[in-house]
Recover the amino acids of this structure.
C-alpha cells in the first residue's frame, strides 16, 4: 500500500526534512504542532497542520492519544516519527498500527527488542558481533552487579537497562565507588524509567564512536557505510563525518558486514543505525546499541552514497522492496556535519532561545543546510536546542574541511548565540584536521580552549 | 511596605520543586534571602536555578508549577 497522506509526528529541522522527502514522492503532508510551534517552518511547508496541544512536549509531541487522534481526523494513512520523541517508542508504533495506519519504521516488536540494552546485546552476540565486555543479561540485584564488575575490571559503566541517549549512565572507577553508586543507579532507573533493571559494561578508555547506516525492507538489508561521531560534548554528538577517517579498508568491510548481519537477523525494516566503539590501536570494534530510527546525522551518509534515506524509508514503509543491492551503493568523497545549536559556547553552552533577526544560509557546491530557521522566527524554549545542521561534501576530508570553513563563514544567524564559533575553532584545530580524537577528546579540548570560544 | 518581585531570567517551563518528589523550594510565608533558590526554569532541556535578587517573605507565586514563562516575567512576589 503506497503512502498517500503522511502525518509528521515531530517538529524542527527533521520535520522539515521529512516533509521535503514526502512531497517529492507526491505524498500529502500533515504536520502536527504544539501551541509554541504554530509559526514553525514545518507548519508553513506542510500541506496541512493540526494543533495537538500545549507547548511542553508532554502535552503535545509526547501525547500518544493526541497524535493518533490528529492522524485519524486528518485521514493520514502513515505516521513518520522522526528522531527523539516517539521514534523509538514501541507502544507508539503499535498504537499507530492498531489505528489502521503505517508506522514509518520497524515493528513495535523490533523496537522493543533493540531498545532493551540486554536483549540487543544478545541479538548482537547471536549474529556473531562482538559486544563490549559486561553483563550477559539484565541484572536485578546489586550482589550480581558486583560480581560482574569484579570480573570485567574497572572502570565500568552502570547503565539503566531501559535508558538511552546517554541517560541513566554512571561511570565508576573502583569497587568503593561502585558500592556507593550502584544502589543509587538502581533507584534512579526505577524512578526515571519505571524499571530498576541494570547492566554493567566495561569502559573502553580510548574509543572512537563509529556507526553503520543500514536500510532494510524486512527481508534484505544493505549498508550505506559508516559515520564517525567521536566529537561529543556531554555524550551529545556535535560533529559527524563519513567515512571514518582512520578505518582501514578491511576493518570497514568487516564492520559493515557485522552491522548488516545483525540487521538481517532481526528482519530489519526501515532505516537504522548500528553503533560501535572502535579502538584504533587494536582495530577492534564492539557493538554498543542499535537505533531503530532515522538519525540526526543521516545526511553525511546521504552525501557520500547518493541515497535519500528518508525517501527510502517512505518507499519501504509503503511496501516497496529495497531498490538497492549492496553493489549499487558506492561511497565517494567525504562529508562532514556540524550541529548548529542555540547555545552560547562562551557561556558553557547555555541555551539561547530568542528571535532570529537575520539569517544568511550558506550555499554553493557541496553545501547543504538542513534547518528549521527563517528570518524573524522566534525559537521556542521548550524543545532541544538544535536549529539546523550544516553539511558539506567534497572529494576528500581536507577539501571537505576547507569547504566547511567557507560555509561557516557564510552562515549568519543574528539575534541569538549559536555553536558556530565552536566549529570555526574545531575546523582550524590540528588534531581535528588530522582526525586525532576519541570520544573524550572534545571535553578536554573545551577546557583548554575556552578563550577561542569567547 | 514595598513589594518586590523575582523575575524569570530565562524563557521556558517553571518548576517550584527540584524534582517532582521533593517539597517546593519556597512556600508562602517562608523567608527569602538574596541568592536563595526559589525555583527552576527548564529551557531547551536544561535546568537553571532561579535565585532571588532581593530578601523578604514569600507573598505569592504569580505562576503555577510547570507553567510556561517568558524571560523577565514576574514569578514571585516578596513582601518586606
Amino acid at each position: 500500500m503506497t503512502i498517500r497522506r503522511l502525518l509528521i509526528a515531530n517538529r524542527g529541522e527533521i520535520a522539515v526534512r521529512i516533509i521535503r522527502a514526502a512531497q517529492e514522492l507526491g505524498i500529502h503532508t500533515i504536520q502536527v504542532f504544539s501551541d509554541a510551534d504554530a509559526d514553525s517552518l514545518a507548519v508553513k511547508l506542510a500541506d496541512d497542520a493540526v494543533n495537538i496541544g500545549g507547548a511542553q512536549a508532554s502535552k503535545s509531541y509526547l501525547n500518544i492519544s493526541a497524535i493518533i487522534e490528529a492522524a485519524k481526523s486528518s485521514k493520514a494513512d502513515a505516521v513518520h516519527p522522526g528522531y527523539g520523541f516517539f521514534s523509538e517508542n514501541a507502544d507508539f508504533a503499535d498504537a499507530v498500527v492498531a489505528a489502521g495506519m503505517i508506522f514509518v519504521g520497524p515493528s513495535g516488536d523490533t523496537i522493543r527488542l533493540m531498545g532493551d540494552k540486554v536483549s540487543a546485546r544478545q541479538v548482537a552476540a547471536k549474529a556473531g558481533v562482538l559486544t563490549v565486555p559486561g553483563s550477559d543479561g539484565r541484572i536485578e540485584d546489586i550482589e550480581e552487579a558486583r560480581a560482574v564488575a569484579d570480573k570485567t575490571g574497572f572502570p565500568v559503566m552502570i547503565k539503566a537497562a531501559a535508558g538511552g541517549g546517554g541517560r541513566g549512565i554512571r561511570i565508576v572507577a573502583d569497587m568503593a565507588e561502585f558500592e556507593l553508586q550502584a544502589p543509587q543507579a538502581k533507584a534512579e532507573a526505577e524512578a526515571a524509567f519505571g524499571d530498576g533493571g541494570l547492566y554493567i559494561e566495561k569502559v573502553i578508555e580510548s574509543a572512537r564512536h563509529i556507526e553503520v547506516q543500514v536500510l532494510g525492507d524486512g527481508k534484505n538489508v544493505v549498508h550505506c557505510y559508516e559515520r564517525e561521531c567521536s566529537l561529543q560534548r556531554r555524550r551529545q554528538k556535535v560533529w559527524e563525518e563519513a567515512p571514518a577517517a582512520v578505518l582501514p579498508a578491511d576493518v570497514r568491510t568487516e564492520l559493515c558486514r557485522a552491522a548488516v548481519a545483525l540487521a538481517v537477523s532481526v528482519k530489519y525494516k526501515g532505516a537504522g543505525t548500528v553503533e560501535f566503539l572502535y579502538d584504533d590501536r587494536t582495530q577492534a570494534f564492539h557493538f554498543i546499541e542499535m537505533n531503530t530510527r532515522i538519525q540526526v546525522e543521516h545526511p553525511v551518509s546521504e552525501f557520500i552514497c547518493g541515497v535519500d534515506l528518508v525517501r527510502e524509508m517512505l518507499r519501504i514503509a509503503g511496501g516497496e522492496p529495497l531498490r538497492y543491492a549492496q553493489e549499487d551503493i558506492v561511497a565517494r568523497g567525504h562529508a562532514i556535519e556540524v550541529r548548529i545549536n542555540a547555545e552560547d559556547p562562551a557561556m558553557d553552552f547555555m541555551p539561547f532561545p530568542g528571535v532570529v533577526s537575520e539569517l544568511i544560509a550558506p550555499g554553493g557546491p557541496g553545501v547543504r543546510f538542513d534547518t528549521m530557521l527563517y528570518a524573524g522566527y522566534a525559537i521556542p524554549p521548550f524543545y532541544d536546542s538544535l536549529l539546523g545542521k550544516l553539511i558539506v561534501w567534497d572529494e576528500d576530508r581536507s577539501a571537505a574541511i576547507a569547504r566547511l570553513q567557507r560555509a561557516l563563514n557564510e552562515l549568519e544567524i543574528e539575534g541569538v548565540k549559536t555553536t558556530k564559533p565552536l566549529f570555526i575553532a574545531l575546523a582550524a584545530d590540528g588534531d581535528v584536521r588530522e582526525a586525532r580524537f576519541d570520544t573524550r577528546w572534545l571535553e578536554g579540548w573545551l577546557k583548554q580552549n575556552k578563550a577561542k570560544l569567547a | 511596605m514595598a513589594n518586590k518581585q523575582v523575575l524569570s531570567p530565562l524563557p521556558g517551563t517553571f518548576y517550584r520543586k527540584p524534582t517532582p518528589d521533593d517539597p517546593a523550594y519556597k512556600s508562602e510565608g517562608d523567608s527569602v534571602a538574596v541568592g536563595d533558590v526559589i525555583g527552576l526554569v527548564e529551557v531547551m532541556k536544561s535546568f537553571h536555578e532561579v535565585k532571588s535578587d532581593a530578601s523578604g517573605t514569600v507573598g505569592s507565586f504569580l505562576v503555577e508549577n510547570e507553567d510556561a514563562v517568558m524571560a523577565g516575567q514576574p514569578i514571585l512576589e516578596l513582601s518586606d
Q: What stands out?
A: The radius of gyration of chain A is 21 Å. The first strand of chain A starts at residue 5 and ends at 8. Residues 122 and 429 of chain A are 40 Å apart (CA to CA).
